[in-house]
Amino acid sequence: MITRPKGIFLFIGCGLMTFMTATAQETHDTLRKNAINVFIDCFRCDMNYIREEIPYVNYVRDVKEADVYILETSQSTGSGGLAYNYIFTGRGKYAGMNDTLVYSSRPDDTSDHTRRRRTETMKMGLIRYVARTPLAGEIDIRHSGKMEQEEVVDKWNNWVFEIETRPRFEWEELSKELSIRNSLEASKVTPDWKIEFDFRHDYNQNKYTYSDTTYTRERSSARFNNLVVKSITDHWSAGLRMDVSRSTFSNYLLNYNIYPSIEYNIYPYSEATHRQLRFLYGLGHTYAHYIDTTIYNLISESRLRQELRIAYEVQDQWGSVNVSFEASNYMHDFSKNRIELGARIYIRIAKGLSFSLFGGVARIRDQISLARGELSEADILLRLQELATGYRIDGGLGITYTFGSIYNNVVNPRFGGRF
C-alpha cells in the first residue's frame, strides 16, 4: 500500500496556483502599462460608464500625461437634438494622428441611448491608437447586422415642432405659489437657411397670508420670437429678428422689435465647435405701448435702436474661453444705452492645477419702460416689476488642485458619488 504525501501535494499545488496568479497579474500589468493614456475633456460625460465600456485604455486626469486627448463639443441641430463633435489629438509617439468624428442625437433619444452612442463614437476614434499597442489582441470588431440602403424621404421638409406645458405649484401654510409655462417652437435648419419660431407664455401667482389678511400677486408674460438667417459665405450671414411681447414685469402691454442684422465670423462657420469670433450688427425699429405711464410720461412710443454683439469662443487642450460683449442704444437719445460684458474661462495651469472664472458686468441706462410711481413692498420683494438700476454685476471663480495617481481606471459605484 502506497501512502500519498498529501501535505507536500497541497504545498506544490498552492505554489503552482500562486505562480500562475502572479504570472497572470504580471501579464495584465504589462498590458496595462503598454495601454494608451487617454484624457477626455467633455461636458456631463458618464465617466463610470465610459470606463466600463472601454477598459483597454488608461484614463489619466492630467492632459500632459495623455497619449490621446479627446475634446467633445456640441451644438444644437435643426431637429432639436445635439451634434457631438469628438476631436482626437495624438500626443508623444502618436503626434500627428488626429481625427474628428461626429455623432448627432435626436430630440426623442433617451439619455441611455445618447450615452451609448457617445461612448461608441469614442470607441471608434480610439481604435487606430489601440491597434498600435499590445492590447489590440483584446479587441474584437463586430458588425451589428446587415444594412440596406434606402432613400430617405422627409415629409416634414426639415421642419421640427415642439409643444410643452409645465405647470408647477408649491403650498405652505401661509403661502401658495402657482406657475405655468407654455411654449411652442418650430424650426427649419439647412446649410443655407435657419428659420426659428418660438412662442412662450408664463404665468405666476403668489398668495400669502399676513396678519390674517390674504394677499394675491400675479405676474405674466407672453413672447413670440421669429428668426430668419441666410448663409451668404463661410464667414458672412444676414438675418432678420422680430419679437412681439407683453409683460407685466417690464410694463409692456404690447412691445415689438424688428432688427435686420448682419454677422461676420472671422473663423469659418465650419470650425464653430472649436473656435468662433463673431461680430453682429443690427439696426431696427421698436414700438411699445405701456401698461402704466412711464417715468418719461409716455404711454406709448416708437424708436430706432442699434446693437453690436461680439462673441469669442475657443476650446482647446489648455482649457476654454467664452467671452461676449454687447452694446446698444436708442437712436433718438444716445444716452439711453446699455453695455454688457460676460466671460467664462477655464484654464489648466499645470499638472493637476486648474483655474476657472465666470462673471458679467452691465452698465444700464436704457430702462425707458419703467412705470411711474412708487412700487409696493410686495412688488419689490416678489420681483413683480422691474426695478430701476444703473448696473448689474455677477461672478465667481474656482481653483482646483488634484494630486496622486495619474491613473483612474477603477469603477466602484457603491454608495454613490463623493460627499
Features:
419 residues, mainly beta, Rossmann fold, twelve-stranded antiparallel sheet, five-stranded mixed sheet, disordered N terminus
Fold and architecture overview:
The structure is a single chain. The chain is mainly beta and 419 residues long. Among the domains are: 21-136, Rossmann fold; 232-401, no CATH class. It contains 4 helices and 17 strands. The protein has helices at residues 6-34, 47-53, 111-130, 377-381, and strands at residues 37-41, 58-59, 68-76, 82-90, 98-104, 159-171, 175-189, 193-210, 213-231, 236-247, 252-265, 275-290, 300-316, 319-330, 333-350, 353-364, 391-401. It has a 12-stranded antiparallel sheet, with no helix packed on it. Strand 4 and strand 5 (98-104) form a beta hairpin. It is elongated. The model is unreliable at 1-27 (pLDDT under 50).
Entry summary:
This protein is mainly β and 419 residues long. It contains four helices and 17 strands.
Order of helices and strands: HEHEEEEHEEEEEEEEEEEHE
How much strand content do the residues show?
A: over 45%
Estimated structural class: mainly beta
> Strand count, sense and closure of the main sheet?
12 strands, antiparallel
Figure out the total of helices. Answer: 4
Rough shape? Answer: elongated
Low-confidence blocks of residues: 1-27
Q: Averaged pLDDT, please?
A: 83
Question: What percent of the residues sit in helical stretches (DSSP H or I)?
Answer: 10-25%
Cα distance spanning the termini: 67 Å
Strand order of the largest sheet: 6-7-8-9-10-11-12-13-14-15-16-17
What's the total count of β strands? 17
- Please tell me how large the radius of gyration is: 30 Å
